[in-house]
Amino acid sequence: LVGLFAIPIFLLYRGTISISLTIWGYIIIAGIFYAASNFLLCHAIKITEISRISVIGSSRSLWVLIGSILILGEKLNTFNLVGILLIVFSLALIFGQKEKKVETNKGQKLALFATILSGFALVIDGLILREVSVAFYLIISSLFTGVGTLAFSPKSITKIGPYKNKKVFVLLIIASFIFALAVFLMYTSYKIGGKMAVVIPITQSAAILTVFLSALLLKETKDLPKKIIALVLCIRCY
Fold it and tell me: Which pLDDT belongs to residue 167?
């Protein structure tokens, strides 16, 4: 659905199509990373609070920063180092729970692995976007990720029943449209001159909204002060 919503954007902005084998290699690698990340994240959501996963997801800035330095050649500065320390401390707040429930710990670990994979996938996106248009990559990456995720669990296609529910399908359409627009704006900001290590931390501010809405709508109020503190530490200013 995200890929379909990106087609009008592609036509509107007259996007270009790449034929470079190197770029297509990067696209496949990024697709595998995103697919694996989606697979792990879906399992994490089943056994862990959304708000807790959102905070863990904010650590994506750390992995993008590391990848941007190693792969994209972006420079590390004092603010980056301080940011790394704050993110590590915020993760310690989330993982340092008194209770020892195996399910909760497993969900947090899955969420962290998913975040690491998606972080490095975003860095590979930076390599790809140097050569192709944003809208074209949004279409291709969405299709690759969808097919790749299905490849991890082919039998899941038989469980499509709930998505036929009108209410669920409408929400899925809305979420896909918002996600397509958000990713387009994020990639465009990088394309026109922003550093990936700066762009991604800014987008992580969405985690604040997720934590508060989770408390309001899903009643996930446990350890709320700790989650807020962890978020403040995760979201860095440049």
Answer: 87
For 168-181, write each residue's pLDDT tens digit: 899 889 988 988 88
pLDDT band at 223 (very low <50, low <70, confident <90, very high): low
Tallying the residues shown for the chain, one arrives at 238
Please spell the DSSP secondary structure of 138-198, one letter per residue: HHHHHHHHHHHHHHH-GGGGGG-GGGGSHHHHHHHHHHHHHHHHHHHHHHHHHHTT--HHH
Per-residue confidence (pLDDT) for residue 209, from 0 to 100: 66
Which of 42, 46, 39 minimizes the C-alpha distance to 149? 39
Please give the Cα distance from 15 to 135 (Å, whole number): 6
CA angle 220, 53, 210 (to 5 degrees): 60
The per-residue pLDDT for 85 is 66
Please state, in angstroms and as integers, the Cα–Cα distance from residue 228 to each residue in 21, 29, 167, following that order.
44, 34, 31
Compute the C-alpha angle 37/38/39, nearest 5°.
90
From CA 143, how far away is CA 69, in angstroms rounded?
A: 28
> What value, to the nearest 5°, has the Cα angle with vertex 35 and ends 30 and 38?
125
Residue 38 pLDDT: 85
pLDDT for 238 equals 43
* 122 contact partners, CB below 8 Å, separation of at least 6: 60, 64, 67, 196, 200
Residues 6+ apart with CB under 8 A from 119: 60, 61, 62, 63, 64, 66, 67, 200
Which whole-number Å values give the CA distances from 45 to 40, 50, 124, 142, in the listed order?
9, 6, 25, 21
